[in-house]
């Protein structure tokens, strides 16, 4: 007696959506033309300058400059990470994360810790400490304060963004 062979196939909408969403990578060119985008690029460029000016010296002999290096490198890496997230519109693909709150916490903590690091940097720079590295440390101190003001600006814009989302 012959058997009947029935084959049923189903298609998952999850795999269809996954393949459609991963095939194109979004890129937001306009982000770099906004004030927060320009501040972020400035933070990256000048933050790199802060830690390279210190890294070119014997900073490891002085714990204060080690702290400044930690803050500068840590927030430089995170700022590059967030720039990539904003430029590729990754935040739109992960709506479960409260991105406005994350941005506010990130920029607020960067402002506070960079301000402390800039003050420590400026107070540690003396010609008596090491005349050979004086200019590098003095320049890093100046740029640390500039980066601090950039993070203060981004904290303000993050607060405005968070506040507008909270009121809705």
Automatic annotation (TrEMBL):
It is a multi-pass membrane protein. Keywords: Membrane, Transmembrane, Transmembrane helix. One of its GO terms (biological process) is myelination. PROSITE patterns: MARVEL. Its main location: membrane. The keyword Signal does not apply. GO terms for cellular component: membrane. Coiled coil: none annotated. It comes from the Eukaryota. One of its GO terms (molecular function) is structural constituent of myelin sheath. It holds the Pfam family MARVEL. The chain crosses the membrane at residues 31-54, 60-85, 97-117, 137-159. It is found in: Membrane. Residues 31-163 form the MARVEL domain. PANTHER family: CKLF-LIKE MARVEL TRANSMEMBRANE DOMAIN-CONTAINING PROTEIN 8, MARVEL-CONTAINING POTENTIAL LIPID RAFT-ASSOCIATED PROTEIN. This is CKLF8 protein. It comes from Gymnorhina tibicen. The lineage of its organism: Eukaryota, Metazoa, Chordata, Craniata, Vertebrata.
């Amino acid at each position: 007696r012959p058997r009947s062979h029935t084959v049923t196939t189903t298609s998952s909408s999850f795999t269809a959506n996954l393949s459609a969403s991963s095939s194109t990578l979004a890129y937001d060119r306009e982000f770099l033309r906004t004030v927060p985008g320009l501040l972020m690029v400035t933070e990256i460029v000048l933050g790199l300058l802060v830690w390279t000016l210190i890294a070119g010296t014997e900073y490891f002999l002085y714990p204060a400059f080690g702290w400044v290096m930690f803050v500068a490198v840590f927030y430089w890496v995170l700022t590059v990470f967030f720039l990539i997230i904003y430029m590729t519109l990754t935040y739109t693909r992960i709506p479960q994360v409260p991105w406005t709150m994350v941005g506010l916490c990130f920029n607020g903590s960067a402002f506070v810790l960079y301000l402390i690091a800039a003050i420590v940097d400026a107070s540690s720079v003396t010609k008596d400490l090491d005349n050979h590295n004086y200019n590098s440390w003095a320049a890093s101190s100046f740029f640390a304060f500039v980066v601090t003001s950039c993070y203060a600006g981004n904290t303000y814009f993050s607060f405005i963004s968070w506040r507008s989302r909270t009121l809705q």
